[in-house]
Amino acid sequence: MWKAIKRWWAYLGAKVNSSFNERADPKVQLEQAITEAQEQHRRLKEQAANVIANQKQTQMRLEAALADLEKLNRNAQQAVLMADDAAKKGDAAKAAEYTSAAEAFANQLIAKEKDVEDLKALSLQATQAAEQAKNAVQQNSRVLQQKLAEKQKLLGQLDQAKMQEQMNKAMASLSEQVGEDVPTLDEVREKIETRYARAKGMAELQDMSVESKMLEVEQASINVEAQARLSEIRSKLGIADAAAPAATTEPAATEPAATGPAAGEPATSESTPAESGTEPSPGT
Questions:
Q1: In 3-state terms, what secondary structure has residue 184?
Q2: Terminal-residue alpha carbon distance, the chain
Q3: What is the pLDDT of residues 119-139, one digit of tens each?
Q4: CATH of domain 22-175
Q5: Lowest-pLDDT range, 96-110, 155-169, 215-229, 231-245?
Q6: Structure pTM?
Q7: Cβ of 108: how many Cβ atoms within 10 Å?
Q8: DSSP letter string, 94-112
Q9: Average pLDDT for the chain
Q10: Buried b (16+ CB within 10 A) or exposed e, 222-244
């Protein structure tokens, strides 16, 4: 029973997760992933900072221990010199005191040397850890930059995908029924082409009818009357009719017919016998 409940619970969890992934906005999920990566980088930097700080503190302790070691070494040497000087002067009490002080400095010197050795080992480990932390931060920073660049690329692909989906919907709406009251573009085009073809057919029938021919004859008659009236108006105005044929004018090559003298002009006596038709008298 418990096993069945666990399996049912796991199934419900997987179903809810699948439904959530289908409905979730990829842009929001991408922002969540980048935010989580930035948060991890921040925590890594904090840890690396703590490691580097520990290395710095160990280094400072080592430097302080080395300074104390040098000081103890000088004090021990000074105590030995003073004890030797007192022994040479025959002052055994002071020589014993200085010797005891030199022994105390020597004991401190031994303990400090041990501390210095331990601090050197700790400092070496801390330095290695600090270098590893720095490298980890640098590597994670590069990974974060790659994720940020990939984020921009994915956002561009997401926008292109949305645009392509809208185009697919628009193209599908051109060939599919949008709704009960909204016709498709193909239906509208077919309707317009049908009306256009019917109108063209009716026009051809009108052109073939007797009434249309009669209208053409009547219109031609009206045009002839209008041209005649325009010719009459031009004649009254003394304007040459440009539409008159050029054959009405006499050709320039023909010679004028022989006529007598015009009225008011004297007849000339110099006429040839051929022209008068009589022989000249001898006295002339």
A1: coil
A2: 173
A3: 999 999 999 999 999 999 999
A4: 1.10.287.1700
A5: 231-245
A6: 0.47
A7: 17
A8: HHHHHHHHHHHHHHHHHHH
A9: 77
A10: eeeeeeeeeeeeeeeeeeeeeee
> 36 near 76, Cβ under 8 Å?
no
Q: Compute the residue count for the chain.
A: 284
User: Are the CB atoms for 41 and 144 separated by under 8 Å?
Assistant: yes
The residue whose two tokens read 């700790």 is: 122
Cα separation, 180 vs 194, whole angstroms: 22
Cα separation, 132 vs 148, whole angstroms? 24
Handedness of CA 143, 149, 155, 161 (dihedral sign): negative
Q: Which residue reads 């050795």 in tokens?
A: 117
The owner of tokens 């994670």 is: 140
Number of Cβ within 10 Å of residue 265's Cβ equals 8
Please tell me the distance from the alpha carbon of residue 87 to that of residue 102, in angstroms, as a whole number.
Answer: 14
